[in-house]
Amino acid sequence: MSDYRVKGATGEWEVVVGLEVHAQITATASKLFSGAATAFGAEPNTQVSLIDAAMPGMLPVPNRECIRQAVRTGMALEAKINAWSRFDRKNYFYADLPQGYQISQLYHPLVGEGEVEVLVDEKDEGSAKRIGVERIHVEQDAGKLMHDQHASMSYVDLNRAGVALMEIVSRPDMRSPAEAGAYLRKLRTILRYVGSCDGNMEEGSMRADVNVSVRKPGGELGTRTETKNVNSVRFVMAVIEHEAKRQIEVLEEGGEVVQETRLYDPDKGVTRTLRSKEDAHDYRYFPDPDLLPLELDEAFLEECRASLPELPDAKRKRYEALGIPPYNASVLTADVDIARWFDALLESGAEPKAAANWTASELFGALNRLELTIDRSPVSAAQAGELLNLIADGTLSGTLAKQVFEIMLESGKGAAEIVEERGLKQTSDTGEIDARIDEVLAANADKVAEYKSGKQALFGFFVGQVMKAMAGKANPKVVNERLRAKLEG
């Protein structure tokens, strides 16, 4: 149970949050009921079929791949898959909806109840919470109005009209902005693992309607508002925070919260009224007469189930079983591209714990510095594996490995090739190491005397001087052993 509370003039209040996430099915390049393209950024009205434009006599035909991807998504959320489902018409007038209705699913959705387990705090295994999913239904998107193209008119772009959406409706189980943020991030991760949606919130292929109400802790549910089309995790959390405070002020001043649809203004950090909230009966839902019910056979369901990849929670547990610390395992599985890269690194023979530490520190540090995502990394997983194996077999010290990695980033060459070209191999030659130790001790006779009189902390100074004399190429273990023997001999 969350201990998040908002302080008001009359005491503490609890926030109740539910999310309706609209995820565009990006695994197919065509729309839900037509073959029109769905590429982001196309010129307005260049991806519109006669069906999308609602020309008379045009009949919708369900896209099998869209249905398959929605079923796979439901399975990944451990949700009930309804072998029988039906499309309904949601009737309303808007300029970007040429049909005058949206084809959706109200009464018999494709996917029923499931749940998502989240870590509210990634560093705390005890912060796990299960958030219920009420349903996933498939529906077509509407077009888009463009208000900034003309001084006195709005233009209509129907490229998005008919695009396939999964609406993933949560239960009102979240009690803080942090819980909602964790849920949305986890949901996005699962969708990207499954491959049904690319999760790109900036491009609008994933967006959330945020339902917020407040109540005295443990009391009756309050009246909720719905803030539409929020397109980032950070904004979802900001909406919850702002809307909770706004509703508490209204209630504490003796007013009533109005059930309405609101919009979020990210520049001002506030929500504002869009329209009064409609109920289902306002849309006059009825079964779509142009579409037969969807009936899924066992063979189709089995193929969907068999096609699912290893999902983030299972992958995290596998990594932990390999000795990778829980936090590192969580970071490495939070994004599908990182997880795939790291799996390829493990396949190269790298020791799991060392590989995880190196990836989280050296690789992520370099990518952040270069402002690159892992799919654009100049160093491949196979090349990283070669570098780590050279560290493991003693060819490279940690210091030399950092030098080699920097050269790999700049040149794209493999670690072994760089070591050979530049003579960066670590040496364990005791004769050469002994000679350098003798030189360092002779040049620092005063410090040798201090060490022998009890100033043990100087040992690190001697190690550093020897490593410097050998340009970082000496095996640190051998240096430590030979130096100690000479100082204490």
TrEMBL record:
Function: Allows the formation of correctly charged Asn-tRNA(Asn) or Gln-tRNA(Gln) through the transamidation of misacylated Asp-tRNA(Asn) or Glu-tRNA(Gln) in organisms which lack either or both of asparaginyl-tRNA or glutaminyl-tRNA synthetases. The reaction takes place in the presence of glutamine and ATP through an activated phospho-Asp-tRNA(Asn) or phospho-Glu-tRNA(Gln).
NCBIfam families per UniProt: gatB (TIGR00133), PRK05477.1-2 (NF004012), PRK05477.1-4 (NF004014), PRK05477.1-5 (NF004015)
Name this polypeptide is given: Aspartyl/glutamyl-tRNA(Asn/Gln) amidotransferase subunit B
Family affiliation: Belongs to the GatB/GatE family. GatB subfamily.
Record-linked InterPro entries: Asn/Gln-tRNA_amidoTrfase_suB/E, Asn/Gln-tRNA_Trfase_suB/E_cat, Asn/Gln_amidotransferase, Asn/Gln_tRNA_amidoTrase-B-like, GatB, GatB_C_1, GatB_Yqey_C_2, Gln-tRNA_amidoTrfase_suB_CS
Record SMART domains: GatB_Yqey
Swiss-Prot/TrEMBL catalytic activity: L-aspartyl-tRNA(Asn) + L-glutamine + ATP + H2O = L-asparaginyl-tRNA(Asn) + L-glutamate + ADP + phosphate + 2 H(+); L-glutamyl-tRNA(Gln) + L-glutamine + ATP + H2O = L-glutaminyl-tRNA(Gln) + L-glutamate + ADP + phosphate + H(+)
Coiled coil (UniProt feature): none
